[in-house]
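Posting this for the archive.
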Amino acid sequence: MHLIEYYLRLLDQIKEVNTVVPIRLSRVSSILTCTDRNAKKVLAKLAEVGWITWTPGRGRGRISTIRLHISRHDLLMDQAKQVATSQTIDDALGFLHRFSVPHTELQQFFDWLMTDMTRTEASIHTTSKDQIILPSYRSFTSLSPLHVHRRSENHVMKHLYNCLVRYDERTEQFLPDLAHHWHVQNNNKQWTFYLRKDVPFHSGKEMTAKDVRESLLQHVRIKESPYHWAFKDMDTIETLSRYVVRITFESSQPHLLHIAASLGAAITPVERSSLPVGTGPFEVKSFTDKKFIMHAFSKHFHTRPLLDMVGMFFYPELYHYPSARHFNEKDVPLNFYHYPYYERVDERLESYEKVDRGSKLLTLNMNTGTLANNDLLREAICHLLPVSSLLERYQGKRFSKAERMVHEFEKDTFARNETRGARLLQQSKYSGETLQLHTYAGAGNEADAQLILDYLFNHGIRIRLRVFPYDHFHREHAGADLLLGENLFLESPLFTYMMAFLSCQSILNTHLPEDILRDVNQALQSTDALNKLLHIERNLLSQYTHVHLYRLTQYAFYPKNLHGVEMNTLGWVDYRKLWYDIGE
């Protein structure tokens, strides 16, 4: 038994703190369920750490006394703070949960996390005031484009890496990035990229054609890469010189620049490193489960960011208790907030909001299982889904229902009809088979999935829900009847469709049959690919293969003298454009 447990046993029986209480040694032994000899040892240790004062009774008729110095609340909070500082925040929360600490006390611990601990950690890494420090409920699964395709990770990776080219959303044009020039030959099968010279990685090494070659080849070797589909038809990739790369494909690739502007073409050095290394405007200084710190990369080949540092501190309890107090006390370094923490900001902060161009997506398995060959059951589920209940439940945190992958292409609205859904369910001859619904932890998926499960159960559809960590989700979801997750809007509408249909980390791709995937690949051979993909999407919707549930409203709250705040396609603020006006 741990010393703290002995103390809590005494406290449960004696109940009084800072009061001298007479007690016999035999009574102490009974409370601690040990011998008198061992009780003396425990009392000595408790006195040594300062939790009690024990005065043994000496002589006939004299009773010993004990004085407890610390309340249960203070003891558990102090111990949890020590665990959070010396181990991890998760360990500290586990400690508090082990002792069944009530919600109100968990909130107090969480307030400490958001103040003293954060201020101490931040002061270690920063001295400049040109910084933003923000909270988040989770750390990053990975910061390698080879392993992850997720909103937060993609956003940060765009600040760490450069790609061969970049896409200008305003002009819808491709512009130079690491490649200053390119040309295409042989019916879009052969692409040659000419690289900038003297572009340094964060490590100090110069970026060359060998790094480009290795970065792209890794997506071919690693079939689990979210961009494996983009390079699997690559025939050869040659380094014609230190700064020239030629890529030849087996088939025509008229839309390769969309890939070259994506994280699939983020260039990393051949040499491996313990921290993510790229050529981007920010470089990683610290990456743990507690915090992520990146500094402006002063040697960036484009333009150095105007900020000096961006810090993120991770608090898992934010996911369950987003209303933590003390976010805005004057001595707290946190000064920037994204959804869902906007409830804690006050009039000292400016606000910015924008409707997300991505959506929450539910897919229905067209390959195997109960839904694959039961068109009526799929249609019934689509009519019975509680989309309006999702919107009502989340009110200001959700914006509106979504109908298509890209908002601009939404014209026809699917008219959900609960009565029609019930009739279709009866016609489908569904006989109570349990459907498997898989999702991953975070992004509100657990609550959304539970609401879907409960609502469909009320209509007689049995569903078993499984929630996976994100890095396990894509290894476990192939046989699920239903998948729930985010569908991200990416660099362009066309690339958004390309990734949704073809990436192995897309839940839509997982549930599409091979003939549909062949149609998608054939469409990408055309210069009119976007219209062809829109036609495929319409056909899939008419077969009830997937449902877009809603689009989020994304938020940012920030100091009044912070300028350049605007959201990118991922719904996060572009840190490269932020700067402080010290005159305000």
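The two ends are 58 Å apart (CA to CA). Residues 103-125 form the longest helix (23 residues).
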